[in-house]
Amino acid sequence: MFEQATYLISSPSYDQCPKPDKFEIAFIGRSNVGKSSLINMLTGRKNLAKTSGKPGKTQLINHFLIDDSWYLVDLPGYGYAKTSKKNRDAWALMIEDYLVHRESLQIVFVLIDSRLDPQKIDLEFITWLGENGVPFALVFTKADKQSVNKGQQNMAKFKRVMKKDWAELPPFFLTSSETGLGKEQITSYIQSLLEN
Ligand code: GTP
Ligand code: MG
Asked: Domain EngB-type G, which positions (predicted)?
């Protein structure tokens, strides 16, 4: 698993992505939540996906080829305030088109900042995923920035909010790209999907 990871291509729209002939998983979430860092942590490669202290770093659909057999995808973040509405709308369309039309996409990991109470923007996004039948798992990031307890509490709050509207809850993971927390859990989860 993750023996080999290579950057393949960045695409401006889903129909320009590589042929959908491989198992594929994608990472999404608010700008700056730690998507690119998580991909680097999982693959054990410091600079595979470009990270930045400034939000809005990732702007295209980035495909990485893993172990010559499947794709991992880094997506641009949603909810980046410091850009024009026109830009935001274009990004939303690009991401939504990809999520709805990419037939080889198995699951989307939605990243959420573990330091925050449940945020409207994240809840709205997963509601949209549910309405569009896109399977997802939730990853709570940056757990090292506070006590593990606090991260777990925020995760529990998120579960409570979701239980009001969802009959079934998705998988939840608590992670840190700094310490590697959650790496094994996510890796085995992806492995189990690959085997099915
Ligand atoms: P965009 O591509 O702009 O949407 O951002 P992104 O979600 O890919 O975030 P990125 O991985 O670039 O990380 C944003 C910032 O958060 C960087 O300064 C990272 O070093 C920091 N960061 C990400 N994950 C963690 C983490 O688990 N712990 C800590 N302490 N910092 C993190
Ligand atoms: Mg990024």
From this structure: 21-196
**Residue 62: strand pairing partners:** 10, 74
Tell me: the pLDDT tens digits for 63-93? 999 999 999 999 988 876 667 777 778 888 8
Percent of the chain with pLDDT over 70: 97
Q: Which domain holds residue 127?
A: 5-195
How many CB atoms within 10 Å of residue 131?
Answer: 8
Number of domains in the chain: 1
Residue 68 sits in a domain whose CATH number is: 3.40.50.300
Rg (CA), the chain: 16
CA 102 to CA 69: how far, in whole Å? 17
The ligand 1 atom nearest the CA atom of 33 = 7
Which of 33, 37, 82, 173 most suits a substitution to test ligand 1, by most atoms within 8 Å of the C-beta?
Answer: 37
User: Do the beta carbons of residue 34 and residue 111 sit within 8 Å?
Assistant: yes
Side-chain-facing half-sphere of 106: CA atoms under 13 Å: 16
In this structure, are strands 136-141 and 5-11 parallel, antiparallel, or unpaired?
unpaired
C-beta 114 within 6 A of ligand 1? no
Q: Angle at which helices 148-165 and 120-131 pack, to 10 degrees?
A: 50
What is the pTM for the complete model shown? Answer: 0.95
Question: 46: CA distance to ligand 2 center in Å?
Answer: 13
